[in-house]
Amino acid sequence: MAAVTTSFSAMGIGTGGIDTASMLTQLQSAEQLRLTPYQNLQTSYKNKISSWGSISSLMTKLQTSVKTLSGQAFNTLTVSKNSAFTATATDKASADAHSVSISQLATAHKLRSAGYSSADEQLGAATGEGGSRTLTIQQGDGKAMTIELKDDETSLNQIAKAINKQDGSVTASVQRNGDGNYQLMLSSKKTGAEGEMTVSVEGDSDLASVLNTSHGGKGSGESGAEADGMSMVTAAQDAKLTVDGADYTRASNNITDIINGVTLSLNSVTKDDAPEQLTLTVDNSAIKTALQDFVKQYNALLTRTTADSKYVAADTSGLSSDDVATTSSDSGALMGDATLRSMVSEIRSTVNGWYGDASGDTAYGALADLGITIDAQSGQMTLSETKLDDAIAAGADDIGKMFKGSGETTGLATALGTVLTKYVGDTDTKSEGIIQTATDNLNTQLKNIGTQIDKTQTLIDSQVNRYKLQFQNLDSVMSKLSSMSSSITSLMSSV
C-alpha cells in the first residue's frame, strides 16, 4: 500500500498541486522580451532626436555669431558726444566726420485763448432752441478736425473735452494764467510748419470771436482781415540745420535722412553759430568681442558633435562564442551618422580655408593670421588675444574683408554661413535645413515604432490571457486528480 501512495505522491497528486502562478509569471516575462528590440529602437530614436536638437541649437548660436562677423562687427561705430544734438548710428553708417550746425529747432504750434473767470461759463450764443455750432481745426493739408457743440457745450472745459474725445492731432487743456483766470490751450501733436493750426467756428459769432484764429495767433490780419481770437504760445516752425555745408529743413527734430545710417536728435541751437563736429569711428572692441564669441560658439558645437559621434567598443568579457556583443551605451547617439559626419567635415573644411584677395595683397587670409589656431585632431580653436589685438590694430579693415569678402572673393563668414544655413536653415528667410529633415524622419520612425510596440503588447496580453485560461483548466484537472488520489488512498487504507 505504501508503495502505491508513494507512487501517487511522485506524480504530484496530493502534494498541494503545481505552482501555476509562478509559471505564468515566467511565461509573461518571456513574452515581454518580444518588445525589447522595439524598445531599444525607440530609445535610440529618442536619443538621436535629442542630440540633433542640441546640435541645432548650438549651430543657431554659431550662425548668429557668423552673421555678426558678416557686417555688424565691422560696422559698429563709436559716436562722438555733442551738445546741440545727439547722434546714434546703425550698421549702415560709415566711419566719417561731419560738420553740423543748427539754427532753428522744430517746434509744435501752441495757442491760448483769452482768460475767463470760470472754466464752466458758456461762451457761445444761447439760441434757446438747443442749437449747435461747428468748431473746425485745420492743420496744413491734413484732414480737418470737426466738432459739433451744443448750446450747453461751449465752456472752456467742455470744448477741451470735446476736442480730446476726437483723439486727433491736437490736444486741448484748460490752464490758469498768472491772473488766476482760465484759458483754453490747444497744442499740436505735430512739430513743424505743417502742424500750424487754423481754428474756425461756424454758427456762433460769440464763440467765433473767442476761438477763430487764421494767422497762427500772431494778431490781426492785413487788409481788414479778422483778428485772431487766440494768441500764439509757441510758433509752428521747422528745424533748420547745415550738415557739411548743405542746408536742410525738416519738420521733426529727429532726422534720419541726411547722413546714411545716422539719426540726429536735435537738442538746441548751436552756440555762437559755431558748427559742432560729429565723428564716427570704428569700434575695434566690437571686432574682438565678435571673434571671441565666434571661437566660443564654434568650440561648443565641435565639443557636442564629438560627444554625439564617438565610438566606444563594447565590453566582450564573459561572452561565449555564440553570444553577440551589443553597442556600448557610452557611444554617442549619432555614432556613424552620415549626415553628422558630412556636416562636421564641411564646417571644419570651411574654417580652415584661405580667404585672402586673389591678388595676394590682403594682410589676412586665414584664421591663423588673427591668432586663432585649430587643432588638427579635435578641430577645437585656440585664440591668442595678444596676436588678435595686434592684428586688429594693424588692419581692422583687412579683417573685415577676410570675413565679409571683397570683390569676387568670398569671405569666411559668407562661406560658413552658407554651410550652416544648409544644415540648420535660417529664421530670417524661414528656410529649413537638413537637420530638420533628419529630425522629421526620426519622429516619423518614432511614431511608427510606438504603434508597433502597442500592437505587440496587445498580442502579448492576448497570449498571457490564453496561458491563464490553460492554467485555470490545469488547476481544475489537478484539483480533480487530487480528490481522486485522496479517495483511492482512503479506499486502499481500509483494505
Structure description:
- The protein is of the alpha+beta class and 495 residues long.
- Helices cover 43% and strands 20% of the residues.
- The protein has a 5-stranded antiparallel β-sheet, with no helix packed on it. It has a 4-stranded antiparallel β-sheet with strand order 7-8-4-10. The chain has a 3-stranded antiparallel β-sheet with strand order 2-14-13, with no helix packed on it.
- A hairpin with a 6-residue loop joins strand 13 and strand 14 (262-266).
- Helix 3 (36-75) crosses helix 8.
- The radius of gyration is 44 Å and the shape is flat.
Order of helical and strand elements = HHHEEEEEEHEEEHEEEEEEHHEEHEEHH
Structural class: alpha+beta
Total helices: the number is 10
Strand order, largest beta sheet? 1-15-3-11-12
Number of strands: 19
Q: Distance between termini?
A: 9 Å
Roughly how much helix do the residues carry, as a percent range?
40-55%
The percent range for strand residues is 15-25%
Evaluate the radius of gyration. Answer: 44 Å
When the domains are counted, the total is: 3
Biggest sheet details: 5 strands, antiparallel
Quick one: overall form? flat
Q: Runs with pLDDT <50, length 5+?
A: 1-16
Q: What value does the average pLDDT take?
A: 87
Domain Flagellar hook-associated protein 2 N-terminal: 17-109
GO biological process, one term: bacterial-type flagellum-dependent cell motility
Protein name: Flagellar hook-associated protein 2
Family: Belongs to the FliD family.
